[in-house]
Amino acid sequence: MKTVLITAFEPFGGESVNPSWEAVRQLNERMLCGAKIVARQLPCVFGHALTSLYKAIDELQPELVLAVGQAGGRAEISVERVAINVDDARIPDNQGNQPIDEPIVSEGPAAFFSTLPIKAIVEGIREAGIPASVSQTAGTYVCNHVMYGLLHHLHQQGGEVRGGFIHIPYLPEQAVKHPGTPSMAAQTVILALEMAITIALRTEQDLRLEGGATH
C-alpha cells in the first residue's frame, strides 16, 4: 500500500497550539487516492526535527512527504517553492537554540526547490474557494530547516520520492490574541491539505501558470 507522510510541529513561540498539528493529526490514517496518510509531529527544535523526520521516512518508505508549519501573519495557504541552506533564528527554538547564519548541511547546495507540483496545488486549492499562493520564502527558522533537510535527504536517496512544504495561517483562537492578524479555520486547512496531497499524487507535470512575486 502506498503511504504519504505528512508532518507538523509542536507549539512554539509562546503559542499553546500549533495549527499545523491541529490540522495534520486529523488526517492520520485517512485514505486518499489509494494511499494511506500517516501523520507525525516534529519537535520545533533545530536538528532534532530532522532526526525525527528521517526516522519516519526510513520507517514508512513513503510515496510522498509533505511537511506543514505555522506562519502567523499569513492569510493564505502558502505552498513553498524553495528552501535555503541557512539557519538564522529570530527567536530560540523549544530547547533554547538560536543558530545564526549557520548552514543546515555543511557544503550542501545553496537551495533546493520543492519537488511537488506547487502551481497545480495552488490552483486546485483556489478552485475550492480557499485562498492560496506560491510562497517564495520558507523563512530561516525551523520550517525552512525541515524543508531543506527533507529535500536534501530525498535528493541523497535518489530523488524518486517527492516532497515539499506548506505554511498555514493561525487558527481563529490564536488570532484572537493577535488583533488584526488573519486566521483560517482548521476544517478549511484540512480540506486544503487533502487537496494538496490528492493533486500531488495525481500530477506528474506541474502547471505552467503565473505564481511569482514582484517583491
Automatic annotation (TrEMBL):
One of its GO terms (cellular component) is cytosol. Its EC number is 3.4.19.3. One of its GO terms (molecular function) is pyroglutamyl-peptidase activity. It is found in: Cytoplasm. The keyword Chloroplast does not apply. The active site is at E80, C143, H167. One of its GO terms (biological process) is proteolysis. Transmembrane segments: none annotated. Pfam families: Peptidase_C15. Keywords: Cytoplasm, Hydrolase, Protease, Thiol protease. Its main location: cytoplasm. CDD domains: Peptidase_C15 (cd00501). It catalyses: Release of an N-terminal pyroglutamyl group from a polypeptide, the second amino acid generally not being Pro. Belongs to the peptidase C15 family. Homotetramer. Removes 5-oxoproline from various penultimate amino acid residues except L-proline. This is Pyrrolidone-carboxylate peptidase. It comes from Paramixta manurensis.
